[in-house]
Amino acid sequence: MVVRIDLTGKKALVTGSSQGIGLAIASGLAAAGAAVVLTGRDAAKLEAAAAGIDGEVAAVAGDVTTDEGTAHLLEAVPDVDVLVNNLGVFGAKPALEITDAEWRQYFETNVLTGVRLTRAYLPGMRERGWGRIQYIASDSAVAIPAEMIHYGVSKTALLAVSRGFAKEAAGSGVTVNSVIAGPTHTAGVEDFVYSLVDSDLPWDEAQHEFMRLHRPQSLIQRLIEPEEIANMCVYLASPLASATTGGALRVDGGYVDAILP
Fold first, then answer.
1. What residues does each domain of the chain span?
2. Inter-residue contact 30 to 55 (CB < 8 Å)
3. What is the C-alpha to C-alpha distance for residues 35 and 37, in angstroms, rounded to an integer?
């Protein structure tokens, strides 16, 4: 049996997709035949990202953490078949120094942006009898890191949000899942790694030191590449994943020391 993923005729929206995991997911969906919409705040970065993707690609610049930015996106893209809520922020800070404003920022950005877009797009998917919604969570949702508990808590919330919306979509042909991404190699993560280890180390040594000191549970003992996260997302977006909903699918390199999720 040959497994083929064909998303021809489907429109996909990926938030936070000008770089990193979001861009890899968008590229993977486009390679499978979907018409892809990139979103982000920086129009120039979005256009550059779109130019690097083969296929039907559009870019809508705006800040979806605001009502105005969300309204602009929904006006430009009123309906989608696949929604990937990837937008998120992260950073290290001692737990007792995280301010109320920072807690609110993480919740607004990492949780409520996806909730708003799900609330906007799920009804149309349900009426058409087909749709795919995904939330990009993290191993930090299950194994809360001491150095960024505000991030971990926001990702834990996504597991509950995706499970809840999966129940709302029950029996409609729409699936809702979260993807638990492990420590992943992106430009932002490189900065994060160097904030925790010797900044004079070459990248390969810095990555090894970071995994040894801060992520020793990883079974692959390396950072995950964004394309490896994208592979799962493309599968979940496809008709092949029609019986997978309400789940938390792990692409964490074996980091979370548990059988479930």
1. 11-178+225-251, 185-223
2. yes
3. 7
Convert the pLDDT of each residue in 17-47 to its tens digit.
Answer: 999 999 999 999 999 999 999 999 999 999 9
The closest alpha carbon to 117, from 163, 64, 50, belongs to 64
Query: What is the three-state SS of 195-251?
Result: HHCCCCCCHHHHHHHHHHHHCCCCCCCCCECHHHHHHHHHHHHCHHHCCCCCCEEEE
Is 106 tagged catalytic? no
- Which amino acid, residue 223? L
How far apart are alpha carbons 136 and 44 in whole angstroms?
24
Out of 106, 135, 151, 255, pick the active-site residue.
151
Residue 258's pLDDT is what? 86
Return the CATH superfamily for domain 11-178+225-251.
NAD(P)-binding Rossmann-like Domain (3.40.50.720)
